[in-house]
Amino acid sequence: MRKLFKTGEIYLWFTGAVLGLIILMVAGLLFIVSLNGVGVFWPSNLAEVKYSDGRVLLGEIKEEEEIPQSALPEKYRDETQKRFQMKIGNRDVYGSDFRWVSTYELNELYYPDDAICIERREFGNLYGRLAGIKDNGVFIAQGGSAITTFKTLLDKSNEVFDRKYQLEKNEIGKINYDIEQQRLRIKKLKFYGQDDPVTVLSIEKTIADLENKYKVLQGEVDELNVKTSSLSVVVTLADGSQKEIELSKAIRFYQPNGMNVFEKTKYYSVKVHEFLFDDPRESNTEGGVFPAIFGTVMMVLLMTVFVVPFGVMAALYLREYAKQGLMVRLTRIAVNNLAGVPSIVFGIFGLGFFVYACGGTIDALFYPDRLPTPTWGTGGILWASLTLSLLTVPVVIVATEEALAAVPRGARDASLALGATKWQTTWRVVLPASTPGILTGVILAMARGAGEVAPLMITGVVKLAPNLPLDTSFPFFHLDRKFMHLGFHIYDVGFQSPNVEAAKPMVFMTALLLILIVLMLNLTAIIIRARLRKKYKGSAF
């Protein structure tokens, strides 16, 4: 044993064991997130339970556990009893989505083939049995034909809803944006005293034309609303009562107990597509997360564009040009300490410096006519990206310095001996050879920046952003807009949702998606780094 300590071999084994433990913990975390996230959209069978007192519930069985003996009634304490959590849906009827059911309270549990689940635009899923379809309060389909009629009418209703949604979000939204821009033009002319009657009249005519277009489109929306307003779906609930909902409130329906694996897989793929490409609904607990995906990726790319030039230039100066001494050592210490500052501190700095100081100054200089309503003096994706750039720049500086230091001294001397200047040597010899190491710092910066939430909460991220920072309206890139972020989406759904249990699956799925996006961004940088290493394989890398 003493020999092992003297040679240091035991420390090597200890280091390897710790590394293996860390890898095992990370793998375990990923496994838990994947296990809870991947199966979120798989259609579970619907179970119907009958209590001893005659009550009946219908829903999905989510969890099952053994009841502690101390929690059992006296007459059941010598037996092993279980309880399971049922998602009973019908939130507008029961007031909650979940209920715990104990086995000793039940008479029967079975899976009826005619049980149906209807996904709605609000109030969550509706579980029951399809009673029929009504048009203006009169049944037009009942019994066996109701399912076929429901499917046909629901497809048409969704087409109408999609058209209405596109009109409201894109065409009407663009008209509203253009009207607001014209009104701001008038306000600006009046502020600077340039509001001559001819110019103002021309702008007002443009506004009137836009408002006429708005009325036409709004009339089309109203017509679309009329098309499905008379249709409704009647569902018989587990307790025998009936629930009637407008057909336009339904998204899709399925009968999981009668579906085979192929049909469930098809439904699963539809739900995954909706999750990736649709907007959220139901306080972000349903629907998709596309705006959050877009905001996360765009913010990371903007952050990278800002952090890489400044980080590399700072490292170049410290390593290649600065005279090594006390000030340089203190600067390096400050950079290293900066990497340990809590992220919320950067958020406070970003709010004070970027949002209030820089944004407020821009508003005062270029948009005084819009004050006191701020344009740049409020949170936005630009200020959030700059704040995260400050947060991650120490990582890039340290990694770049290490990469520069690893370039052989002989490469520099050979370049200088051939007549190259200091800058030419740095630009054409040192930087290309150290690029793989610089990309390592970029990878670490992207990974950290993508997962940060605290600084974003006060510099531009919001619960729901109806307009993306990039669209078809000039100037196309709207860096002053607020945005959604997957990390904040996880926090909001998991901790701010009024229905936490119902939102839990979405938390795991969003967390898994965020991990995959970070891996994809990092993998792209890793592939580029590998190619550069191959290109400069004669260097120290």
The overall average pLDDT, rounded, is: 88
| Helix percentage | 55-70%
What is the top-level CATH class of the largest domain? Mainly Alpha
User: Which regions are unreliable across 5 or more consecutive residues at pLDDT < 50?
Assistant: none
How large is the count of helical segments?
14
Derived from helix and strand composition plus strand pairing, the structural class reads: alpha+beta
Report on this model:
With 541 residues, this protein is of the alpha+beta class. It contains 14 helices and 13 strands. Strands 6, 7, 8, 9, 10 and 11 form a six-stranded antiparallel sheet that branches. The two termini are 38 Å apart.
Fold blueprint:
Layout (H helix, E strand, L loop, with lengths): L1 H6 L1 H30 L7 E6 L4 E11 L15 E6 L3 H4 L3 E5 L3 E5 L4 E6 L5 E10 L2 E5 L2 H47 L5 H33 L1 E6 L5 E5 L3 E5 L6 H17 L2 E2 L4 E2 L2 H32 L4 H13 L4 H24 L14 H26 L2 H9 L4 H30 L34 H10 L4 H36 L6
Antiparallel strand pairs: 1-2, 1-5, 2-3, 3-4, 6-7, 6-11, 7-8, 7-9, 9-10, 12-13
Helix pairs in contact: 2-14, 4-5, 7-10, 7-12, 9-10, 10-12, 11-12, 12-14, 13-14
What can be said about this structure in brief?
The chain contains 14 helices and 13 strands.
What keyword list fits this structure?
541 residues; alpha+beta; MetI-like fold; 3 domains; six-stranded antiparallel β-sheet; flat
